[in-house]
Amino acid sequence: MKPRANSLTFNIKIALLVVALLIAAGTLYYTQTLVKKLQTRERRLVELYAKGLEYITDPKRTNTDLTFIFENIIKRIDFPLILTDAHDSVNLSGINGGYKNIELDSNLTREQTVQLLQRKIKELRSIHPPIVVTYTDSVTHILTKIYYGDSAVVTQLKYYPYFQIFFAIFFILIAYIGFSHVKRNEQSNIWVGMAKETAHQLGTPISSLMGWIELLRLNYNNPDKVNDLTDEMGNDLERLNKITKRFSKIGSKPDLKKVKLSDVIEKVTEYFKRRLPQTGKRVELIFSGDTNAEAYLNIDLFEWVIENLIKNALDAIEKEKGKIEIKIYDKPATIEVDVSDTGKGVDTKFRKDIFRPGFSTKKRGWGLGLSLTKRIVENYHKGKIVLLNSSPNEGTTFRIILKKEK
Length: 406
Fold this sequence. Notes:
Blueprint: H1 2-56, H2 67-72, E1 81-84, E2 99-100, H3 110-127, E3 131-136, E4 140-148, H4 152-218, H5 223-249, E5 257-260, H6 261-275, E6 282-289, E7 294-297, H7 299-316, E8 321-330, E9 334-341, H8 369-380, E10 384-391, E11 395-403
Parallel strand pairs: 6-8
Antiparallel strand pairs: 1-2, 1-4, 3-4, 5-7, 8-9, 9-11, 10-11
């Protein structure tokens, strides 16, 4: 199962990477398409400007009204533009001083301004080829060349997807590192908790067996007493065997059988009733409800669920006297089991975390009981467990919801 799980994880990662690359490629393609459309629009504007210059420099036309060109073309140009002669020399005394939308220091000399504009021409030539304005008498003459660049909007759009992809990769990397840390921490808590849970589960019957052995040594001449002691030892050995079965079923597909739910719960409650006096608390354990209700269960694992909820309830009861009530509700499609106690309740700020592995509000807790309980109910029995209600110093109720159908 492990290699298959690793292969599935690897395939999911590859699929996510492919999807991310497709999204990045789609964003890049869409943005670059917009850039090309805007560049085409700006080139048409420059071409219109060039046509206007050709028109007004035509010697055949006199008294030409330049208002249209200046109001509708030149004012709309929001990108860098430089006018030169046929030899790429800037005419600072020409229309608009020979350039537009280029920032120059007002303290520069004329010579320094020309030198700076010449460098700018080389830069603009690398972006777009110049548009040549000509006029014809007997031969064609070059009136001017128009060098132009991209507007601020086009430049921003051109580089936007790269910034977007960079920040997306950076965010994904940070998220991956964060989630990996959380996952490692959670796995560590699970392993530590499982080890402690195992020790805890084995500790009680082993301690009892050691006690029974001492009593056997003291009463080996009393057959009746020996028989009673061996019966108790048999119960503890059965308990050890049950613990072994429980842990062996974690991670494998359990076998579910239709059983009477009350028989399973009653067996657990009877086990705790015999041991409640040892806790030093006067806790009343009550079991009631629809005792004929049947559900598909793995008995060993579901007993573990009820045990964990009872232990959790016992820990919550800090007073000398308290009550734990287990009640079955037989409904048309589901069977519900409520486990209620009169303990200290669950703090509102902790309610979202109580089923998280490693979370515990107890000083000696390791935060695995409720996590295991949720896993057994939801993953193995396809049911649901919820914190139904909880009030400070009044008590808590957990509800298990099981389907009647397998």
